[in-house]
Amino acid sequence: MKVSMIYNYILCFLLFGINVVSSQNKIGIFDRNADIGECRLQGFSEYSEKNQTYKIGGSGTNMWFGKDDFQYLWTTIQGDFILRAEVKFLGEGVDPHRKAGWIVKNSLDANSKHVNATTHGDGLTTLQFRKEIGGDTNEVISEDTYPDVIQLERRGNKFIMSTAKFGEEFTSVELADMELDNSVYIGLYVCSHNPDVMESAEFRNVRIIRPVDPNFTPYRDYLASNLEILDIASGHREIIYRSAHSIQAPNWTPDGKRLIYNSKGHLYNYELSTNSISALNTGFAVNNNNDHVLTFDGTLLGISNHNPDDSGTSALYYLPAHGDSLPTMVTKPGVGASYLHGWSPDNKKMVFTGNRNGAYDIYSIDVDSGKEQQLTNQTTLDDGPEYSPDGEYIFFNSTRTGKMKLWRMKANGKDKTQLTFDAHNDWFPHVSPDKKWIAFISFPKDIDPSDHPFYKHCLLRIMPYQGGKPKVIAYIYGGQGSINVPSWSPDSKKIAFVTNTK
Fold first, then answer.
1. In sequence order, what E strands does 281-381 have?
2. pTM attached to this predicted model
3. Sign of the CA dihedral 193, 199, 202, 207?
4. Which helix (H) or strand (E) holds 459?
5. Ranges of CATH 2.120.10.30 domains, the chain
6. Which regions in the chain score pLDDT beneath 50?
7. What is the Cα–Cα distance from 168 to 424, expressed in whole angstroms?
8. Would the CA dihedral through 188, 192, 193, 194 be positive or negative?
9. Would residue 467 be called left, alpha or beta, if left means φ above 0 and alpha means ψ between -120 and 50 degrees?
10. What are the pLDDT digits (tens) for 81-92?
11. CATH architecture type of domain 32-209
12. Fold classified for 224-501
């Protein structure tokens, strides 16, 4: 009896020890690293937990013909995926054909069937592939050169490489009818193109994304969420929280100490100093959507809660920013759906999108009296209104010229001016506290301009406060709920947002 118990304890300990070793061998989000092929110099793969970046060094003769030599940082996956990373070669380099990027393989054999998205030391950017074991490698050459951002997406037997210099839009090439196993190896790689030389590269903002099923039902089927913080100046992103739930729309409190986000109808505090999460008590309002906004001074929190006494129609309320108080209703029952987007700097008015008389227009409302003022009057959709920090302007988005574009008007609704003009659909302008920038999300060019759907390839962009050409600050898989509400840090240096993956 005792011997049997001791044996069981030893067995459990050994099994536990094996599991510990297994977890310790992981390198960031990847399982293992290995030199593939005949590499004379042993490669390496390192992960910085602090910076969420990877450094990979590899030698190898080539990534071409019937076999490959390279250092591989890999994991495994089934089905469709989106792989994205920003890459930078380290050092001047010896051979102009040194390569770095993503590679997808059926096996760890050097002659495996594969698809790889690569940038070369001389700027050449190609989608390379080997269709048969040991067969010659072929390529699709991109018009893009010297990209910083490399994305490789699988949709069944179609592979799409999208690349860009950071801050610009993607250039894409496709490979159709490429048969790889459903279960494959995926990962980052470096090849020096010289067997006697070690080359290295750094990868940041590395993401492995499992997209939504094509036949999913919006507002019923949700993906998991990443709560991220973006440094505007550097473009560096940090995932601070991963949730299997759908979390949406982080506000940044004016004291810089916490984020407020919504999930499953409730609101939550995320304490940035401790990474702790707590429920924000909103009393009876437990069916909140992602339209929640803090006053500029951070004392009050406005919410859009679906009122069960008004057929579940979204209505406006407010309560102290720390919660623990019954919300005060602002809009009157029966007037139509109301979705909050901003406060006036003096805390006396809210600005919102309201469904009145069968159309969605922009309204302001006096918080004390409940008196509404209609600021736009269009048959097309106006949405996403937000006051400037000085209260002089309201920024919003509108389809009045076809695509969803950003606009600005005076706080009384006069002098409307269009701000963005390209082919994207731009939503939710957020003015930085220092009044230098407008941040917003750009949805794909081919969607319904009146829709801001979940789970799309989107861009986070900024433009000068006075207007000008937008530039990309993040390439994301997300959309609805990513950045619906003001989410600038109080020092105007960072933005919080949400991305999604299965």
1. 293-294, 300-307, 313-320, 328-329, 338-343, 349-356, 359-366, 372-374
2. 0.94
3. positive
4. strand 456-464
5. 224-501
6. 1-22
7. 13
8. negative
9. left
10. 999 999 999 999
11. Sandwich (2.60)
12. Neuraminidase (2.120.10)
